[in-house]
Design a protein that fits this description.
Metallo-beta-lactamase, Chain A, 16 helices, alpha/beta, single chain, Rossmann fold, 24% strand, seven-stranded mixed sheet
Length: 552
């Protein structure tokens, strides 16, 4: 890799640029690297439910990786750790709550030898040429950290996910004076969250949601369900407070919800608010106006608690007419259809569905709006902005906003695989560097390439179906018996037999019409072409063709 220079600092995102989710970032200096975050993506494809960055580049240089630093416990920053640990095997550094979640994931994956290091909030660590400092910010989960990387070539502030919440309710407040001091020290580059760059003003405080939920729940006459992200523990606590204020007991519903709350309690964040939490079975015996359920599934996930409740298939929870479901969350792009389906299922039962459209302040974002971004620039005063954590439109607007409206001198917009080189007070993309990027997916027990043959075949099967043909031939490429053809996803009912019979006739003709000097490969291609041409003419589609030729 001749494009790496001595005594030069590099930034390399392998995930999280051009997309929201799946964050994986690398910083390199003199052939030594640190990784920040190893996240998964939110989208699902053809049976693969966990998607993460292709880390082929890391596998090549794994002996040069000094450590992995996790900013916080969200899936798009932590979720790939257990899946990718065996491919990286570098020490991992994280704060107490994030450590609790990571240890649980590793245990579930059967990984016992991971080098996991719990550090205190505000810790400083030195790894090779990098001094790494954890800086507490606020976000929609516990212990969100920005990371300051001090190197011989300059200081980088990698924000992770953040916002400026003046009253986050659970956990510490952000320290503006610490950010100002960082700016006074001098920051070469700010690598910054771009999620809400199009939103004017400020994102709002969790305290506003708590007030709103307390008032809203007081006015409900029957059962109340609050659906939110399990990791948003301030929101969970607000739902518990709302239940307490209205004289209701609370059942926590969903495995991840119970696990997150347990993690918060064990790391000393939840106090006696859990005293009025009961089991789902106990809640089922209470009067309708004396119970609240706080559950997962706000995104319509297929096996989530709320999805099963909406379909009437949950063991202990059955909603009735005039019960209320409050969606205290935002819609993650791509989940619109699943959420709408769930809303409609609830509505058909007579359940009142309340979202941010029907009720004010049932949700605030965990990411900064424009005024918060501007405040960050003013405090930190970076020479270079590198926008991350966003789609292309977010990154481009973030760069424009920072340089044209907020006096940031220079911006570089990356994509996954962009190798960014820092020189003095500027940075640029090393165009000759061709870093492999892409997606891996967890498919059963294996990691597979999302652009590989397996997923290519699944896409084709899902769009146009399958034709499988088996023929037996002798050494002279003559048919022995009749071909056998089966199909799936092309025709149905009684037509299937006739359709396959017509294909079998064409296969017989294709074999018989082969010239005497034809090879096995010629025969194989002729049969494949005759099947493809017939189906395209008959149905106008191009299914997956599987051909078995047996030589007797």
């Amino acid at each position: 890799m001749s494009y790496f220079k001595k005594d030069t600092l590099y930034f390399l995102p392998l995930g999280g640029c051009g997309e929201i989710g799946m964050n994986l970032n690398m910083y390199g200096y003199n052939n030594q690297w640190v990784i920040i975050d190893v996240g998964v993506s939110f989208f699902k494809q053809f049976g693969v439910e966990v998607v993460m960055p292709d880390i082929s580049f890391i596998e090549k240089i794994k002996d040069q990786v000094l450590g992995i630093f996790i900013t916080h416990a969200h899936e798009d920053h932590l979720g790939a750790l257990a899946h990718l640990w065996e491919h990286i095997q570098a020490p991992v550094y994280l704060t107490p709550f994030t450590n609790y979640i990571a240890q649980h994931k590793l245990k579930e994956a059967g990984i016992k030898n991971a080098d996991i290091n719990k550090v205190k909030l505000g810790s400083k660590l030195t790894k090779g040429p990098f001094e790494v400092e954890f800086v507490h910010l606020t976000h929609s989960t516990l212990e969100p950290n920005g990371l300051v990387l001090r190197t011989p070539a300059g200081t980088i502030f990698h924000t992770g996910d953040w916002k400026f919440d003046i009253d986050p309710l659970v956990g510490s407040h952000f320290d503006g004076s610490q950010l100002k001091a960082l700016g006074d020290e001098g920051v070469l580059a700010l690598v910054c969250d771009s999620t809400n760059v199009f939103e004017e003003g400020e994102s709002g405080s969790e305290s506003l949601v708590r007030e709103s939920l307390i008032d809203l729940v007081k006015h409900q006459k029957n059962r109340v369900v609050v659906a939110c992200f399990a990791s948003n523990l301030a929101r969970v606590q607000s739902a518990l407070e709302a239940a307490k204020e209205s004289g209701r007991k609370v059942a926590l519903v969903g495995r991840s919800m119970k696990h997150m709350v347990k993690g918060a309690a064990e790391t000393n964040y939840f106090g006696d608010i859990l005293d009025h939490v009961i089991s789902e079975k106990e809640a089922a015996d209470l009067p309708r106006d004396k119970v609240m359920y706080v559950c997962t599934g706000s995104q319509g996930e297929s096996r989530s608690a709320l999805k099963r409740i909406s379909e009437g298939s949950h063991h202990h929870i059955h909603l009735e007419e005039d019960d209320t479901v409050i969606f205290s969350s935002r819609i993650i792009p791509g989940n619109e259809k699943d959420i709408a389906t769930m809303h409609n299922s609830l509505a058909r039962t007579g359940v009142q569905v309340l979202t941010h459209r029907e009720a004010a302040f049932v949700h605030v974002s965990g990411h900064p709006y424009r005024d918060e971004l501007k405040q960050m620039y003013e405090w930190v005063r970076p020479k270079v902005l590198i926008p991350v954590h966003g789609e292309d439109r977010h990154l481009l607007e973030h760069a424009r906003y920072a340089t044209e409206e907020c006096a940031v001198p220079h911006a570089v917009v990356p994509h996954n695989g962009s190798l960014i080189e820092f020189q003095k007070d500027k940075a640029h993309i090393v165009e000759e560097a061709k870093i492999r990027t892409g997606y891996w997916g967890r498919d059963g027990f294996d990691l597979i390439e999302m652009n590989g043959d397996i997923m290519h075949d699944r896409r084709k099967l899902s769009y146009h179906g399958l034709v499988a043909a088996s023929i037996a031939i002798d050494g002279k490429l003559r048919l022995k018996g009749s071909p056998e053809v089966t199909q799936r996803g092309i025709v149905e009912g009684n037509d299937a037999g006739d359709f396959c019979a017509l294909i079998e006739e064409r296969i017989e003709k294709a074999v018989k019409n082969q010239p005497k000097d034809a090879s096995y490969k010629d025969l194989q291609e002729a049969v494949r072409v005759c099947i493809r041409q017939f189906i395209n003419k008959a149905r106008g589609i191009k299914p997956k063709i599987v051909l078995h030729i047996i030589e007797l």
